[in-house]
Amino acid sequence: MKNMDAMYICTTPFQIMSAISLVINRKESADLYIDAQFDGAEELAERIREQKIFDEVRVLLDVPCIKRVREAAGKAKRYKELMGIYRHIEDAAKEILIPDRSYRLLYATHNVFVANVLMLYISKKDVRTRVYYYDDGEGSYDEKDLYQESIPDRMAKRMVLGRKPFRGVRRYYMYSPDLFRSMHPENHVLVYQLPKFHQNKDVLRVISEVFQAEEAKEIREPVVIMDVLKEEALSPEDGKRLEALYGKLRKIFGDDKIVIKRHPRDKAEHADGIREYPFSGTPFEITCLSSKPSQMTLITVLSTATTMPKLLLDEEPRIVLLYHLFKKKQGTDEERDHFFEMTKQIYRNPDRIRIPKTEAELEHVIREIREEL
């Protein structure tokens, strides 16, 4: 049996960045488990292995229990598969974990299947592994209780554990504990500072190399439109209105001063021919490593990636948020206002975040930006 400090469970590139930051800053002997829910996971894992910061990096491909859940069609069938897996929790954990390892810590980010299996397993078997939560971006700050139980969760725990206690999350590691506490003052969980990338040169170097942050990926234009996935976020009518606004902004600022970063899953063409950032599939956090985010103006209906420069790098781009001018399919303006008002409090210059509520206010903000440029 090999005794390790920690295992990290990741499902997204952002989570992998946070895991890299934690493992370097905490100087742990650790394994990285990647539940490959994004393209290029194997290639990314190989670049991580080259850095030798994790003992082993395992991409969870062709794991039987994961495939059964992912391939289940419909909620009823998925629930049936989950219950069958939870009844044999030891077998599921064995399929996921590297053989003959013990871990002092489990780092997870939210209530995903792999994390649930392992948390149930260590609770049932009395494995002496503590569970820590680590930063997963904007969603980490929205939710008061990141592991809020659903009815199926409670049923699964009772079925697996009986009357044994569930050994849940002991502490959080966040890029901005102050933002989390101001959002949720009633939550008294222990929240520790996860250092920003620029505070550790090794973290900055490794993340830059793993995610291939290069000078060629720099955004040089001062105005950046952060697009949304319109068919999921907006009605067809508002989608057309937004495209018309992009065309207007292009005329106001000129082709040499504005660029659009499309949503990574967006394949649509922009009718007005606005220039596109050629590396839109690159996570914006990596784009920021190649660029100068404090010199940018980010314009978006509601891209939460706009907060990442501050959270990860302590850079303060100007942000212009348009959500009051468009009806989004999910969430409320009150919820968004609360989040961004709290974000303003961690900015050195809160006036860098602008949230126009009318077309006239937007025109005033745009005039200010144009005059400054």
Q: Your description of this structure?
A:
The chain is of the alpha/beta class. The strands form two sheets. It has a seven-stranded parallel beta sheet, with helices on both faces. Helix content is 43%, strand content 16%. Helix 1 packs antiparallel against helix 10 (201-210) and helix 9 packs antiparallel against helix 15 (333-346). The mean pLDDT is 89.
Number of helices: 16
Write the H/E string, N to C: EHEHEHHHEHEHHEHEHEHHEHEHEHEH
**Intertermini distance:** 61 Å
- Name the structural class: alpha/beta
Strand elements, count: 12
- Major sheet: 7 strands, parallel
* Shape descriptor: globular
Mean pLDDT over all positions: 89
Record the strand order, biggest sheet. 3-2-1-4-5-6-7
Rg, Å, rounded: 22 Å
Strand content: 15-25%
Outline the low-pLDDT stretches.
none
- Estimate percent helicity: 40-55%
Give the gist of this structure.
This protein has 16 helices and twelve strands. It has helices spanning 13-26, 41-51, 64-70, 75-87, 89-96, 113-124, 139-142, 151-161, 177-183, 201-210, 230-233, 236-253, 284-290, 308-313, 333-346, 359-372; strands at residues 2-10, 30-34, 56-59, 101-108, 130-134, 169-174, 190-193, 223-226, 258-261, 297-300, 318-321, 353-354. Strand 10 (297-300), helix 14 and strand 11 (318-321) form a beta-alpha-beta unit.
